[in-house]
Amino acid sequence: MSRTVFCTKLRRESEGLAFAPYPGELGKRIFAEISREAWTAWLAHQTMLINENRLSPLDPKARTFLEAEMQKFLFGAGSAAPAGYIPET
Length: 89
Description:
Blueprint: E1 4-7, E2 12-15, H1 24-33, H2 36-52, H3 60-75
Antiparallel strand pairs: 1-2
């Protein structure tokens, strides 16, 4: 049987993650409060941010930016798409 959590992002009970996907205290919080569905949505949003902003995950500034956006996306009001972003139809 899978682990369930009350997902902070989705505001409902949902299947939890199998392991902490991020290091440190933030990773522990994600594991405890974020569902697999919400984490998958973040990964898609993160990919869009990396591509649209031409970020390198190896760049410390980009990593700081992505971590801040992740916190906004998962626990805050949400992370906005880059200016001028038009999703594919």
